[in-house]
Each structure stands twice: as structure tokens, then as C-alpha cells.
Amino acid sequence: MSSCDSNAVFDTYKTVPNQWHKDSIITFEVNPPDSTKTYNLFVNIRNTNAYRFSNLFLIVDMNFPNGKTIKDTLEYEMAKPNGELLGEGFTDIKENKLWYKEAVIFNEKGTYKINIQHAMRNNGSVEGVDELEGITDIGFRVEPTKNN
């Protein structure tokens, strides 16, 4: 499935079968079109009502063509305090466009590899959630900033 607008220079989803295992890493390979322009980067999540958490913790690695890696641990709000899921969509599938990085310049030639995995835990538990239910698709999106 793809997005309805043509603003993105990269917009791809990968389906998560049934449940997202904590050791399952979703990888995207991006070949930026222009090394002089700035881009906003997003992680896109599609989830159903089976998602039972109010937030989502992700570990996102960006691997540069020269071998450098930037690793971020990110937290996103996924539900209102009353439990109503956030996101766009009229069915029980909600789509969330989550900020990852702003005004990025891809100044190295080659392929950038983005790895995404969840880092969810139950309250009071040290062990991670092995199988995260309710996430159906993970996406990655690159779009030019408005000032390009």
C-alpha cells in the first residue's frame, strides 16, 4: 500500500505478520535523490484496536554509506488518556505518521539503511514484550522540507 500524496521521495511499508517480535528488525534502504536538499524523515505505523499500549518505544538505527551509525530510542504517544487510539483512519486500522528526524541532509553518496525494532515493556517488567500485538505495518517516509 502506498500513500495518497506525491510529496514523498520515499514512502514504503513492510507488513508485520500477526505479531511484531522484539528481535524482528524492519529494514529500509534509501537512496536519496539530492545531496544538497533537506528532508524530513518519518516512521509510519499502522495499528489495529488490538494494540493495547498508550505509547510505543522504537529503536531506530540509521546506517550511513560510509559506515557511521546513528541509533535513537524514540517514544511516541499512540492513545489518548481515555484509551482512544490516535492516528488517521475510519476503520479499526489507524495510521500514525511519527517524526523521526527533521531537516536531514543526505550528504554521502550511496545507500542509507534504516533499521526499526520495537522496545516495548510492560509496566514494572524488565523483560521486553516478546510479541507486540496490533501493529500491522511499519513504514519509512522521506519528504523534502518546505524550504527546498
Rg, nearest Å: 16 Å
State the CATH topology: Jelly Rolls
- In whole angstroms, how far apart are the ends? 27 Å
Structural class: mainly beta
Element order, helices and strands? EEEEEEEEEE
By CATH, the architecture is named: Sandwich
Summed up, the domain count is 1
Helix content: under 10%
| Mean pLDDT reading | 91
The proportion of strand residues reads over 45%
Specify the number of helices: 0
The profile of the biggest β sheet is: 4 strands, antiparallel
- CATH class identity: Mainly Beta
Strand order of the largest sheet: 1-10-4-7
| Number of E-type strands | 10
C-alpha geometry: globular
Low-confidence stretches at least 5 residues in length (pLDDT < 50)? none
Tell me what the structure shows.
It is a single chain. This protein has 148 residues and is mostly beta strands. The chain has a single domain (10-144), classed as Sandwich (Jelly Rolls), CATH 2.60.120. The protein is built from no helices and 10 strands. It has strands at 10-15, 19-21, 26-30, 38-47, 55-63, 69-77, 94-105, 112-118, 131-133, 135-144. The strands form 3 sheets. A 4-stranded antiparallel β-sheet has the order 1-10-4-7, with no helix packed on it. Strands 3-8-5-6 form a 4-stranded antiparallel β-sheet, with no helix packed on it. The chain is globular, with a radius of gyration of 16 Å. The mean pLDDT is 91.
Element layout with pairings:
Layout: E1 10-15, E2 19-21, E3 26-30, E4 38-47, E5 55-63, E6 69-77, E7 94-105, E8 112-118, E9 131-133, E10 135-144
Antiparallel strand pairs: 1-10, 2-9, 3-8, 4-7, 4-10, 5-6, 5-8
